[in-house]
Amino acid sequence: MEKFLFLLILFKVALSYIYYDTGLARDFDYTFDSSFSCKTGYSKTAIIQFSNQFEKIPQVFFTHEYFDQEMADLGFRLSITTITTTSFTTQISCNQQRVFTLKLRWFAIDDQRIEVISNFNMDTPDHKTFSIKNPNAQTGFIAITSFRYLGPIDFLLSISQITTNSVTVSITKVAGKFTNLKQIGYFVVVGVAEAFINLGLKTVTGGFSSGTLPIQSNRWFAIALQGLNYPNTRNMRIKAIFTDTSTTKSYTWGTWDEIETPNSHSQIWVAYQFTTSYQPLECFSIRTSRKQAIDLSILPTFFLQLVQPNQIYITNGNYEYIVDKSITPLKMNIQMKCENGKKVQADFNKCNSCSIQKTYSFTYNCFNQMNYIGFFPLFQQAFLQYNHLKINIQSSLLEVINVVYDQTITEKTIVKIQILNQ
Fold first, then answer.
1. Measuring CA to CA, which residue among 141, 102, 167 is closest to residue 222?
2. Could you read off the pLDDT of 54-88 as tens digits, one per residue?
3. Which CATH topology does 18-271 take?
4. CA-CA distance, 304 to 109, in Å (whole number)?
5. Euclidean distance between CA atoms 341 and 271, whole angstroms
6. Cβ–Cβ contacts within 10 Å for residue 340, how many?
7. How do residues 254-275 score in pLDDT, each as one tens digit?
8. Which of 268, 66, 75 has the alpha carbon at shortest distance from 153?
9. DSSP symbol at 96
10. Bridge pairing between strands 153-162 and 248-254
11. How far is the C-alpha of 167 from the C-alpha of 189, rounded, in Å?
12. What residues does each domain of the chain span?
């Protein structure tokens, strides 16, 4: 009975984990915290609690929904310094003129179909390329986090290129104004095709009204600021005011008691729940061969060819390769020595969802007349996607591992061939 109660408690604790969360942080708002006087070297650290505990440390990003700050020389440095399963920590510091209020709409998610890249407080603004992990993260957006200006500024950040392993952010450089921009910080948030609905870049010179936007289920709405054309003649004041119904959302984005600050922002619906699940490659067909090689000494122990891209691996080591999403089915040509007195055990991933018979399995005893074995598997998936493969070749082992970025990152062995003693 006690064991049952213990397991029941563990089960309830497991159910209490969250996998996404959002909120509005007002820790850097002088009307909320009268001690917040961000100027001339002032700094503050704030811990923002999640609504519950995440199972794993989530990724966190934020967008600005309220600016109230003075003219140049003004700059604030803002970053996330720590993330745990229960909270994240932000830190701000200001150099000269005062920042009165920043309101941050934050988003936390434990899902590898989205990847958050932080480029906090870049002191020499310029184009920059970042590495990404998920090869299927082929779309994204930028959200400004911080900046410093010495006079009028006019710039726009944009994603200029995404590949299977990198994303490049470009910044416009308007003559006579770009030199006034001394620091810029931003998030680059990339994801799979389902991750974002981008309603487009809105470049506005006056007060902006969004009109009525249909609410998208299982998605957050984010105002992602990408650029500013600030004349530095009055204080910068921009705020969002939202009006929501059960089915629609609308907002205004502009100033109060000051002149407008022309700016560019994107309207983004960010998925926090997904319908598309990424799974490892499955072998749906395989052909084998056995033959006699006259001189094994001139042959590699293992020969692996990814047929369509003609990638060949014959020496011991660890390799990685991204298979293009246009390649389907993926064909492999695997050949290997089968020396007298040895045996070969080969397994190929056949069925991700099966509880039994998950692999095609082969065992061959080796002898002189049949000392060279070939396997010719075909692999496929439910839909087109890039595939991240890790290849491990040792003296008596060949492994092909499919790295899958879904809610979690998993590594599934789709080919395993061992040379064993009989």
1. 141
2. 999 999 999 999 999 999 999 999 999 999 999 99
3. Immunoglobulin-like (2.60.40)
4. 38
5. 56
6. 13
7. 999 889 999 999 999 999 999 9
8. 75
9. S
10. unpaired
11. 10
12. 18-271, 282-421
The helix/strand/coil state of 73 is coil
Tokens 């923002």 identify what position? 48
Structure tokens at 67: 């600016």
CA dist., res. 226 & res. 224, Å (int): 6
CA atoms of 105 and 88, how far apart (whole Å): 13
pLDDT at 145: 98
Contact 25, 74 (CB under 8 A): no
- What whole-number distance in Å separates Cα of residue 256 and Cα of residue 237? 7
CB 248 within 8 Å of CB 213: yes
Beta-carbon count within 10 A of 32 CB: 12
Cross-strand partners of 315: none
The CA angle 194-87-222, to the nearest 5 degrees, is 35
Q: Identify residue 420 by its one-letter amino acid code.
A: L
- Dist. CA 142–CA 189, nearest whole Å: 6
Please name the residues in contact with 111: beta carbons below 8 A apart, sequence gap of 6 or more. 19, 20, 272, 274, 407
Q: For residue 234, how many other CB atoms are within 10 A of its CB? A: 15
Contact 336, 344 (CB under 8 A): yes
Residue 3 in 3-state DSSP?
helix
- Upstream peptide bond of 329 is cis (omega within 30 degrees of 0): yes
Cα 290 to Cα 371: distance, rounded to the nearest angstrom: 7
pLDDT class for 7, splitting at 50, 70, 90? low
Angle at 41 between CA 61 and CA 93, to 5 degrees: 5
Interatomic CA distance for residues 312 and 319, integer angstroms: 11
Show the tokens assigned to 85. Answer: 């399963």
Cα–Cα distance for residue pair 362/287, rounded to 1 Å: 11
User: Tokens in use for 283?
Assistant: 């072998």
With bands split at pLDDT 50, 70 and 90, how would you rate the model's confidence at 422? confident
Token match 């179909």: residue?
Answer: 113
* Contact assessment for residue 93 and residue 42, using Cβ atoms and an 8 Å cutoff: yes
- Indicate the SS3 state at residue 362: strand
Residue pointed to by tokens 């794993």: 56
Of 420, 372, 399, which Cα lies nearest the Cα of 316?
Answer: 399
Q: Taking the chain, what is the end-to-end CA distance rounded to the nearest angstrom?
A: 49
Q: Are 125 and 183 in contact (CB under 8 A)?
A: yes
Tokens of 26: 């007002």
Count of residues making up the chain: 422
Q: Could you tell me if 19 and 55 are in contact, meaning their C-beta atoms sit under 8 angstroms apart?
A: yes
Residue with tokens 């290997």: 336
